[in-house]
Amino acid sequence: MRKIPAIALIAVAFFIGCTKEKSGPDESTFAFVVYPGAKYLSQVSDLFKQAHKVLKPSEEPPATAVYDTDAPIDDVANYYAQSYGYGKVAADSTNNLSAAKPAAYFRTGDLAGDTKATEEIMKKVGINPDVTKATGSYRAAEIEAKPNRPRVTIQRPYFDPTKSQVVDRTLILMFRQ
Questions:
Q1: For residue 80, what are the contacts with CB-CB under 8 A and spacing of at least 6?
Q2: Model pLDDT for residues 62-91, shown as the tens digit of each residue
Q3: Is the dihedral of CA 3, 174, 35, 160 positive or negative?
Q4: 35: CB partners within 8 A, 6+ apart
Q5: Which residues lie closer than 8 Å to 128 by C-beta, 6 or more apart?
Q6: Model pTM greater than 0.85?
Q7: SS3 158
Q8: What phi and psi, each to the nearest 5 degrees, are found at residue 24?
Q9: Tell me: the pLDDT tens digits for 98-114?
Q10: Which residues, in sequence order, are bridge partners of residue 159?
Q11: With contact defined as beta carbons under 8 Å apart, do 171 and 155 qualify?
């Protein structure tokens, strides 16, 4: 099962996912749907773009936006699943042992391990967070992309490498695949 970390490890998975051929709609029809009241995190969004340039220097970073909100993760995940037409968010990626992976599902992870795994990438983009402060577990949701909408990863809590602290808010990472 693929694990996506706090902010930095999400970036790694994001870049791995970007290896697919682009066959989506033209830019004018592509839209980020922003959860009501969510705050745009420009520094964190820029980190994802810088990390993409480090990992794939010959490619232009895809459209990426990172937000956070005080809203509970369940509310945010359900908002995106419903706005994408997926209905309910499955409890996990097995969807009650169904053969088909659900388009929207919850998962869990470990902040310490995930953040430690991306420490070198963070250094290459010019930040040196104190990864020892990334402690505890998190709950996340994965929302599959649509032709005119980005893939969405939602996580609470998350580790903010720009401040070297765990933030008890819901992170919303959207990126075009």
A1: 33, 35, 104, 141, 143, 152, 154
A2: 889 999 999 999 999 999 999 999 989 999
A3: positive
A4: 67, 69, 71, 76, 79, 80, 172
A5: 122
A6: no
A7: strand
A8: -90, -175
A9: 677 899 999 999 999 99
A10: 166
A11: yes
Q: Report yes or no: 114 and 6 within 8 Å, Cβ to Cβ.
A: yes
3-state SS record for 159-172: EECCCCEEECCEEE
Q: Cα–Cα distance between 158 and 136 in angstroms, integer? A: 10
The two tokens of residue 28 are: 């004018």
Query: Which residues of the chain register pLDDT less than 50?
Result: 1-6, 8-27
CB neighbour list of residue 87: distance below 8 Å, 6 or more residues apart: 81, 104
Type of residue found at 48: F
Joined tokens for residue 113: 């391990």
| The dihedral formed by the CA atoms of 77, 83, 86 and 87, expressed in degrees to the nearest 10 | 70
